[in-house]
Amino acid sequence: MTDSVLNVLLGLVASAIAAGLGWLAQTLRRRRRLGRLQAFFGLPDGGDCLLVVNRHASSSHPSSVQRNDVYALMELSGLVRECRGRAELVPHDKVLQGLGHKAEFCLGGPVSNDRTAAHLASWLPGVSFTPDRVVEDFDPDDAAISVGDETFRYVYGGDTRTGQAFVLLARLHAEPGGRPVFLISGQSAISNHAAVRYLVANHRRLARRYGVDRTFALMLRVVNPGAYGPDVVELASDVTAKASVRPAEAAA
After folding, report:
1. pLDDT tens digits, residue range 231-243?
2. Distance CA 171, CA 181 (A)
3. Which pTM value belongs to this model?
4. Virtual CA dihedral for 173, 177, 179, 183, nearest 10 degrees?
5. Is 90 exceeded by the pLDDT of residue 220?
6. 133 occurs within a structural domain
7. Could you give the CA distance from residue 142 to residue 136 in angstroms, rounded to a whole number?
8. Number of domains observed in the structure of the chain
9. DSSP letters along 167-185, please?
10. Residue 113 falls inside a structural domain
11. What's the CA gap between 212 and 241, in Å, rounded?
12. What is the CA radius of gyration of the chain?
């Protein structure tokens, strides 16, 4: 065997080894990333989760769902598939089980989602929504979410130059070792959709700050949803401590 042929063979072997090591490193990175994603959302391989569907608050049909809430559910379904889990769509008034057995994504505020109302009363008693029920002739500028001594008011931007909406994004852990509940409760369907996008885009940062087993409650601001839809969203306040404390008047 000539030196030239030997050099070619050695080069091919070195290239094959380098390619194999590169493939192995990428595979390990993907597995670590998937493992962190699954741990944060409580969705192991083949794990089941509930997508709790709210209703259209202003519709007379009890099974109607607002368009932007449908978009939010589609993005949540994609997230579950990325975690290699299985999603089950369940109407908000048909969920008859406790917390911790399955991961859960609960969409909508207490006006449109009975499951949300139960979660707030049980685990985040410091949070209240105004209005707390469907009312006629309601001015959207009167909508507000109160957490402790903070109030986050909806501002309708009819001319697409102003306006803001708020949405509560929370992760609840009813018991150690249980599957988490993600609560997405906004002042509008667009704000629900915006919170889902924020969760998908920022889950790594949230995992670094809160780990995989801590409760958190964040108030997000959706900027000018009439012009930008669900695309411009920012953190308004971390309300974790205030949300978990029952107001003094109610406790008394």
Report:
1. 999 999 999 999 9
2. 6
3. 0.84
4. 10
5. yes
6. yes
7. 13
8. 1
9. EEEEEE-SSTTSPPEEEEE
10. yes
11. 18
12. 23
